[in-house]
Amino acid sequence: MKLKLFYITLMISACSNTPMNSQDYWRAKGYRLGELGYESNSEKVLSQSQRENYDESAFMAGYASGREVYCSPESAFKKGIEGTKYKGQCEDSPNSIRIRAEWERGWHSFISMDTFRWR
């Protein structure tokens, strides 16, 4: 009986989580939108900023980290091979030429796979 009670208590405590504070919440939101390739002035970002308790510095720090992930050559190739169009989100990045080249390499692979499938 004591063992059952222990396991039940363990299971219940495993399901609980601590809520994020406002700074962590906005940093995570910014990271997610940056990682997905949204521009910092996009409608999605602006709608997020109009919520209460908006922490702009945390949001922009998270956004910069997420955008760094999005604007990596490895990510660009992956986006290209998945068929995701590149809209110049990383043109101001120091690696912009390599990023575009990797995306194009992935895009050409995506196109050739698509063509090959339908033959």
Describe the structure.
With 119 residues, the protein is mainly α. It folds into 2 domains: 21-71, no CATH class; 73-118, no CATH class. The chain has 6 helices and no strands.
Q: Average the pLDDT over all residues and give the rounded result.
A: 82
Quickly give the structural class: mainly alpha
Succession of helices and strands: HHHHHH
Radius of gyration: 21 Å
Low-confidence stretches: none
For the sheet with most strands, the description reads: none
The termini sit apart by 65 Å
Write down how many β-strands occur, each being a DSSP E stretch of 2 or more residues: 0
Helix content: 55-70%
Number of helices: 6
- In total, the number of domains comes to 2
Fraction in beta strands: under 5%
Itemize the secondary structure elements and their pairings:
Blueprint: H1 2-15, H2 22-35, H3 43-49, H4 56-70, H5 73-82, H6 96-117
Helix pairs in contact: 2-4, 5-6
Task: Report a brief summary of the structure.
The protein has 119 residues and is an all-alpha fold. The protein has helices spanning 2-15, 22-35, 43-49, 56-70, 73-82, 96-117.
Q: What are the main properties of this structure?
A:
119 residues, 2 domains, flat, Lipoprotein, DUF2799
